[in-house]
Amino acid sequence: MALIVQKYGGTSVGSVDRIRNVAQRVAKYKAQGHQVVVVVSAMSGETNRLIALAKEMQPQPDPRELDVMISTGEQVTIALLAMALKDLGLKARSYTGWQVPIRTDNAFTKARIEDISDASMRTDLDSGHVVVVAGFQGVDGDNNITTLGRGGSDTTGVALAAALKADECQIYTDVDGVYTTDPRIVPEARRLKTITFEEMLEMASLGSKVLQIRSVEFAGKYKVKLRVLSSFEEEGDGTLITFEEDDNMEQAIISGIAFNRDEAKITIIGVPDKPGIAYQILGPIADANVDVDMIVQNVGHENTTDFTFTVHRNDFSRAMDIVKKIAGEIGAREVKGDDKIAKVSIVGVGMRSHVGIARNMFEALSKEGINIQMISTSEIKISVVVEDKYMELAVRILHQAFNLDKAA
Ligand code: ADP
Ligand code: ASP
Ligand code: MG
To answer: Are 138 and 284 members of one domain?
Structure first.
């Protein structure tokens, strides 16, 4: 007997029929003698619908009330799934986040899980119930409802698996695993049988939305056995996230390509080249709770330099206002903003032991005449910023250039 946590995403619970299918799958695992905890997302499109509705009322919705509202999507699916399980003759019990409870901090719309009480769930499991938990939500120290950020049901799934010391956490979605890149952009993309935790962390942080980054962080911290699978296929091993690099002897140099259209770039031209400038610019940005991603400062000439950084597109206009003010104060010449950019990244632990990867990447991009605006690297990734209209082309040609369509 194993304890398994299964998480089903929005498309997988997108209709009553699909929820019935989920119930069938859960029943199969129960019949094999396993204990099952199921985490569900809202039905597909529901969270977007709720956010749009809130914005009709208030263009910048009050964060506390927004969380009260957008957490309702998941409350519907836990009830529907528990009904479907009961129809199959199983014992089942639904839980909202506060009923578990899943304790979080009080950062509305992007709360972090701090603690999960497993007592009630364990009692239910021990008496043969399927435990059905609403993804994406929790409760803060003052009993306010919180949500965990878009895609947060993945994190609920992995965090519950960690709290319950589950034998496996299965993330069921609309693709049958983690691919070399998003198969919607590159049809030749290949499913990876395994991907290392480090690579998955990079892929998620660089924009692959197949797993929310915090879920991968949890899996790493608590060594949760994590697998991504299709909810639309009966069989299949999906993709296993591994913690051992040498698990896969045939490790490719590059495992995957991630992309992100959610960034915008801000450049300050003619900044006086003296100590403390980066701090003077980025300090107020951080104070305004705006996350900065890439940063480039050029070599100075004639006592001035140019300073460029990227932020999330949602924060772009706020960041521009702040920077324009600072530019005046520090005597910079000009501020330029560009929200028509995209970041494309190649990821692979094999990069550590191979030279020339950056060269191959830049060569492939230059052959297509794609201009690289910014570059950033780590041990296992290279990211470039390009004009957003070239993003899909860049992903496709890099996929080809690194032979990702061919089995490793
Ligand atoms: P869910 O609603 O099940 O959480 P998501 O839409 O959040 O599903 O994530 C699954 C989607 O992630 C896929 O449909 C796919 O388009 C996208 N995706 C992006 N990058 C990848 C990748 N490398 N491998 C697989 N899917 C990816
Ligand atoms: N329903 C939430 C969202 O759409 C959480 C999730 O699906 O993971 O972002
Ligand atoms: Mg998701």
So the answer is: no
